[in-house]
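Session log. Operator J.P. requested a structure for one protein chain; no other inputs attached. Running the standard single-chain path with token output.
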Amino acid sequence: MPLDLVTYRLYNQRLSHNKLDHPADVVTWLGAVHAQDFLGAKWALGLRTNGLSETDIDRAFADGSILRTHLLRPTWHFVTPADIRWILALTAPRVRAALAYMDRQLELDKTIFEKSNAVLTKTLRDGKQLSRVELGSALQKSGINTDELRLGHLMIHAELDGVICSGARRDKQYTYALLEERVPPASALEHEEALAELSKRYFTSHGPATLQDFVWWSGLSAADAKHGLEMIKSQLEHEDLDHETYWFTGLGKNEGADTKAYLLPNYDEFTVGYTDRSAIFDAAHSGKLDSRGSVLAQHSIVLEGQIVGTWKRTLKKDSVTVDATLFTALKKSQQPAITEAAEGYGIFLGLPVMLKFREPE
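Structure written below.
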């Protein structure tokens, strides 16, 4: 796979150039940001902004300028208030379908979801922001069983139905709020308009990417994803590589190869946004990952566009230690780039950083 594929992605994802000024700008640009790991997702936003700190990201989340909810694939994503309603309308049916089997196993149905939504609405009305435990208690008092996985599914369906979304954190607790009270009214998008908009956001920010990449990222059906691409492909460029067609904008086309290092969080859009990751990760190193064996679940060290190792952080009151485990030995000329990346992470946290290299066995 040619290097410019990786270089364009680093550029278009705002990792290497043209960083943005506000967390919401990043989320808008990318369409939605995988946020299964909240701490990692905050760093994903920090990497794409001009010197913002973790405190700045926390502030944006607290004031609701970025939200966290289930949409696209059935997992958490950051999304903006301006986009949450139309993206949910577009993608929620597919997420519900993905949940349907487990819903049946848990004996959850439309009647229960409607009753749960009514209880949540009553409990959260007038600006209340409550934790999952508190809402679970309210559901139990109303005669709704929340044992085992049922509470999680009830909450996800309330998100998909546009009843609730994230509230501000209370200390370290996550809270929920009513979407209608947390998010200002916005004009609805028709299905075709929404499909074209999500397609444009994806290929502009994640390209070069294939149709299959978009199917995976969006959670849409192959037919809908193809139709979305058809509607906007006149605005894109494309190139055929290894029997695949990659779609992208011309943004960054003349940029040279990227020599920087990036300490990417788990599930960063640079890794999670594509089905084929062979352009950035040599599968020969899979055995050097943890027991999950998935590069998506790792904090990845990217150097010159390639994943060259993994990293872990250890937080103390007055410092952070970054343990970098490399797949292969680095040249001495390459180590400063990783040191600089680690220092950037320390600046983001507002803590001095200690970097430890673990050479490959």
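Operator note: The two ends are 28 Å apart (CA to CA).
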